[in-house]
Specification:
about 400 residues, alpha/beta, Rossmann fold, 7-stranded parallel β-sheet
């Protein structure tokens, strides 16, 4: 099968879902990636991605161009994050690919690139929404403090509700990472098009992960994630202000490492504490996870599956998370990971893992077993392949119908 993969950013180890789809699909299919390239990190990811697919075509989009696009969209009802990624050049590149490429199917990644998918005709289109952005924005508005950020989220929510509802009806299939996201998308559609929205969870690269990590620092805690994401900023500042002091009271030598790209000023300021290290972008988060004794995920609002939890479990690092962070998982709290929503309970779980190595190993081994059985990327992509086969077969059946047969087909 020939697949045209359209993304609003270059798939990479930071954008692990899209990268994993490309990597594993390319083992049995010809995958051409057409993507926007935003910065130096994207540019560096291109050569790496070329090892895993047939071809990569990128179009640069500067921050200035993105903000200009948002300005043009202000009078409209288009979400600003979708407007930001408008690109006439990428639209023309996609049209050229379709004219000369003889593709069987197009895969469009995220709401930011959905408008490119709406312009694709002649072949079926699978849209990976990843998360329901309406659900994320509703939770963001609910948990945000009053100020410019809350006002912007509220404005974006009003734009997104109708936009997302319309998208569900415009594609052959819509993928999401969790049941919550699926329910919300269907609710936006009035529970029509039920068969179109399919849950395809996130996974981990077990070949890159090892349960026999090297020597761990007995007083090391790690938080990992894209630090430009507001839910991660909220989570790590909450941990440092409310939970970490309780841990340090009993274990003064404990250290926290915050791993993730593009940390904003409020996260960088956390590094003024000598017991906190803020790394910024790293090429591979695995060494930091394998060095730590505990991984924490204190997110208070989010949607979909938290990959930071799966990645830590895959490396044999025991996890303490909020119920929100593990809601989309089938993992059992108290067995595969530990969970608490109050700061004292969260700190108590962290301390127990630091102080009881045998217990920490038991949780870690259970956690790794869980991801091996439920979240290995190659198995997840097999599900994506079956979805591709369904929509391509359906499209071919529709094409061979005569106009008369189509007119007689019940709606």
């Amino acid at each position: 099968m020939r697949v045209l993969f359209v993304a609003p950013y270059v798939p990479s180890l930071v954008r692990i879902r899209s990268f994993s789809f490309v990597k594993y699909l390319s083992r049995r299919h010809e995958v051409t990636v057409v993507a926007l390239m935003h910065d130096k990190v994207d540019a560096e990811a291109v050569d790496f991605l070329r090892h895993y697919c047939t071809r990569v075509e990128t179009i640069p989009l500067s921050r200035g161009e993105g903000l200009y696009n948002c300005g043009l969209a202000l009078p409209s009802r288009v979400p600003l994050q979708a407007a930001y990624c408008r690109s006439g050049e990428l639209t023309r590149r996609i049209a050229s690919e379709l004219q000369h490429g003889d593709y069987d199917l197009a895969h469009v990644e995220h709401m930011r690139a959905a408008h490119f998918g709406l312009q694709i005709t002649g072949i079926p289109v699978v849209y990976d929404s990843v998360d329901c952005i309406t659900l994320l924005l509703r939770r963001t508005v609910r948990h945000s403090r009053f100020g410019p950020g809350k006002a912007l989220s509220w404005s974006e929510l009003r734009r997104t509700v109708g936009y997302e509802a319309d998208l569900v009806g415009r594609f052959d299939r819509v993928l999401v990472t969790s049941d919550d996201d699926r329910r919300m998308l269907l609710n936006l559609r009035g529970n029509t098009d039920v068969f179109k929205v399919v849950v395809v969870p996130n996974g981990v690269h077990l070949a890159r992960s090892s349960s026999d990590a090297g020597k761990r620092d007995p007083d090391s805690i790690v938080f990992s994630g894209k630090m430009s994401y507001h839910a991660n900023v909220d989570a790590v500042t909450y941990f440092c202000h409310e939970i970490f002091p309780l841990v340090k009271r009993d274990r003064p030598r404990v250290r926290l490492t915050i791993v993730g790209s593009n940390p904003p000023p409020e996260v960088r300021r956390l590094g003024k504490d000598p017991s906190v290290t803020v790394t910024g972008h790293v090429p591979d988060v695995r060494p930091f996870l394998e060095h730590a004794t505990v991984a924490v995920c204190p997110v208070r609002y989010a949607v979909g599956i938290q990959n930071k939890v799966l990645e830590a479990m895959a490396t044999g690092t025991p996890v303490v998370a909020t119920s929100q962070a593990c809601k989309a998982l089938q993992a059992k709290p108290g067995q595969d990971l530990l969970s608490a929503d109050d700061s004292r309970g969260f700190a108590a779980h962290v301390l127990r893992l630091l102080e009881q190595p045998a217990y920490a190993d038991w949780i870690a081994n259970n956690g790794r077993r869980y991801v091996v059985e439920n979240h290995e990327w190659s198995r997840i992509v097999e599900r994506v392949e079956s979805i591709y086969e369904e929509v391509v077969a359906g499209h071919r059946r529709l094409r061979i119908q005569t106009p008369l047969e189509m007119k007689a087909t019940p709606i």
